[in-house]
Amino acid sequence: MNKLILGRYLPGDSIIYRLDPRGKFLITFYFIGIVFLANNVASYGFLLLFVLFAVYISKINLGFFIKGLRPMLWLILFTVLLQLFFTPSENPLWHWGIFTLSTDGMRIAAYIFIRFVLIIFISTLLTLTTTPIEISDSIESILKPLKVIKFPVTQVALMLSIALRFVPLLIDETTKIMDAQRARGVDFGEGGIMQRIKSFVPILIPLFVSSFSIAYDLAIAMESRGYKDGEGRSKYRVLSWSKRDYMALVVMLLITIILLFIRSY
Amino acid sequence: MEIIFKNVTHSYEANSPLEGLGLDDVSLTIHDKKFTAIVGKTGSGKSTLVRHINALLKPTSGTILVGDREITPETNNKNLKPLRKNVGMVFQFPESQLFEDTVEKDIMFGPMNFGMSEADAKKSAHKMIELVGLGKEYLDKSPFDLSGGQMRRVAIAGVLASEPETIILDEPTAGLDPVGRKEIMDLFKNLQEQGRTIILITHNMDDVANYAEEMVVIHDAKVKAVGKPKDIFNDRSLLTDDILTLPRSAVFAQRLAKKNFSFPQLPITISELTTEIKRQVHGD
Amino acid sequence: MENIISIKDVTYTYPESKKPAINRLSLDIYRNEWLSIVGKNGSGKSTLAKLIDGLIESETGTIIVDGQEVNEKNIWEIRSKIGIVFQNPDHQFVGATVEDDVAFGLENQGIPRDEMVKEVDAALKMVDMQDYKTRDPQSLSGGQKQRVAIAGVLATKPSIIIMDESTSMLDPNGRKTVLDLVKQLREEQNMTIISITHDIEETELSERIVVLRDGEVVQKADPKAIYDIGRKLTNYGLEEPFSSQVAYLLKDELKLPEGYLNEEELIENIWKLSSKM
């Protein structure tokens, strides 16, 4: 459970860490969008170089990013193989039943693979260098206009940040309960489907019970510290947009222009 | 069952950039039918150590022998039930493991997982509920209607019901009031006297002095000292490095030693302390 | 002495329970005193704390805090005068980092940001956690988390601090740092401290001890008078103080004065006896 790299923050310091989280958040989504504009060797290669450069200046070991691919491995493999053997072609290299192997297929499979790498690397870069609370701050900030239509942005943001805060605690709690039940003779992942589902009951019930008790304690603690309903609160945490954040946006603009030039129409 | 650790190392998230050492080349023998206390600061590796005894964790290198059962890095998850039946484990705040709709069913859960028949498990539940100091009238209640202290006792009964030969206790009395604490500790001492091996993780040095025959000090993932509590609490090198604190009787004796008393060996229990005071007041 | 809290004839029964957790309880708490509330698990100690803060509502009687009755209308003002540090360090940490958590109470009061920054720094300094300002709770020990919780409470400058078994889940080291901190705060600031505990040694620092059993006050006196109860303290789920246990075992052969002696007095007396011989 602790092996998931995607979604985890890694304390550190570099220019990427210091960028405003709102900017990072938007740039990540923007980048995922423009990945779909790439359509030839040059454009994919260019984007890959850009991502590797970003990883380099983040001062984070490339190993983390490669590990980030792991949970998605089966999906990647499946999609790549699908493209490799099922891309229709005029002049196949090899043909057997419904399977077709062609240079086109190979090329498209390679593109798909690079696309996965790009998207996973850039999202991993966001989560490794941005604390969950910064992400939730960014979401609050980005959603702010919705206040006009009475959407409870502040409350939702607080909820999100508390939820994020309790993820590690609940993971610890789950590990502990699982250990306790394994010590009482529960075998996870043994027997048939029904058996397996049943073996999770002794985990889920205690987990619900402790989540509720944590929630109750937390609600009492928050209330005792004067939390009413989220309105009339001031904010301690502020995000500051600086020159380097404008620079980052300019870089993204340049990337887009170059990409548009080197992609084929 | 004798428990032997041979050069056991455990690293968390091995081969990842976040690797950390939980146990560092630990070799140790925990004797059969003894009451052994494991002490050390928070995060020193005590819990990691005991989780190897029932293979909840596996060593990164080294071997653990539990009776004739061998646990190595290659041990797979199949066929661990006989081991876990023999090594019962009471976790910190064990009340969080309760889940059945009656106390009786919850106590029977472990034994039945280990292959005990329903009738035998029921018999065991009836015996254990009394042993932990709750009456049979609790068996039909929902565990979630009980107080925290009662839930703790039910959870302990649930571990004892499988009749393990070795019982591992991870701070079993944390958060209980002093009277409840003493009752629980006396219960475990009784079980040991009936022939069980007890391994207790604790921060309470008075409990170590009063109940344990052997003591293991863990510091920074390593075994720092093993021996009889009396010898270890008299080992000055452990005290000066702030690895270990003393039982209250020993602290009291140290204060008396500043007057005209002398203790070649610090007393660690209150009866040792008072006997020695009487001897010195009358004697010389 | 002036009352800061006066509780009159208060009863509270938990929804799922038949027996009241607090039963027709009356108690006066004096301004600037350090009061210990002790008793078995389930004697009603924590329930009482929640009633004082208006976190649960009493069925009978009244509670007056600093001249104001605890009711719907006054509740927020009363809560701003009381800070509670709860038992489980993990279940009261609201913020994602130390500084965010300390700021939480200030944010609730709508304090402007530049003022908050100063208050947060000052509060962290008081508990000696300023070096951990940007750390996340996962990286702190239990004792450090409780110190942050105390800072969060101090930041809003309450006149009453309730420690609701705040040290019971800590290891001896953590417990010591938290207690030393409370002792120091007590000396430096004018505050009423209500400490709920079942550790008899913790009560030594207080001026008065109230013993609860089944939701009622059964004893109320200064520590020395409570410790004089001796062996029978176990009836209230408490341990006899260590020096009393030692004295009890010595009394058959050594002539010690009657009544409770603290460790220092006991050592002094034993020493006198030995030099006479």
What features would you describe in this structure?
The complex is a heterotrimer of chains A (265), B (284) and C (277). Chain A has helices at residues 15-18, 21-35, 41-58, 62-69, 73-86, 103-129, 132-143, 153-183, 193-198, 201-224, 243-262, and strands spanning 94-96, 99-101. In chain A, strands 1-2 form a two-stranded antiparallel ribbon. The longest helix of chain A has 31 residues, at 153-183. In chain A, a hairpin with a 2-residue loop joins strand 1 (94-96) and strand 2 (99-101). Chain A contains 11 helices and 2 strands; from the N terminus they run H-H-H-H-H-E-E-H-H-H-H-H-H. Chain A is mainly α and 265 residues long. In chain A, helix 2 runs antiparallel to helix 6 (103-129) and helix 8 packs across helix 10. The relative contact order of chain A is 0.14. Chain B is α/β, with parallel strands linked by helices and 284 residues long. Chain B folds into 3 domains: 1-79 and 165-230, P-loop containing nucleotide triphosphate hydrolases (Rossmann fold, 3-Layer(aba) Sandwich), CATH 3.40.50.300; 97-163; 246-284, no CATH class. In chain B, helix 3 (103-113) crosses helix 4 (118-131) and helix 3 runs parallel beside helix 5 (148-160). The longest helix of chain B is centred in the middle third of the chain and has 16 residues, at 178-193. The relative contact order of chain B is 0.14. Chain C has 277 residues and is of the alpha/beta class. Chain C folds into 2 domains: 3-231, Rossmann fold (3-Layer(aba) Sandwich), CATH 3.40.50; 241-277, no CATH class. In chain C, helix 3 packs across helix 4 and helix 3 (98-108) packs parallel to helix 5 (142-155). The mean pLDDT of chain C is 92. Chains in contact: A-B, A-C, B-C. Chain A binds chain C through residues 131-133, 161-162, 164-165, 168-169, 213-214, 217-218, 220-228, 232-238, and chain C through 50, 53, 55, 76, 79-80, 82-84, 86, 88, 90-97, 99-100, 103-113, 116-117, 120, 136-138, 152-153, 156.
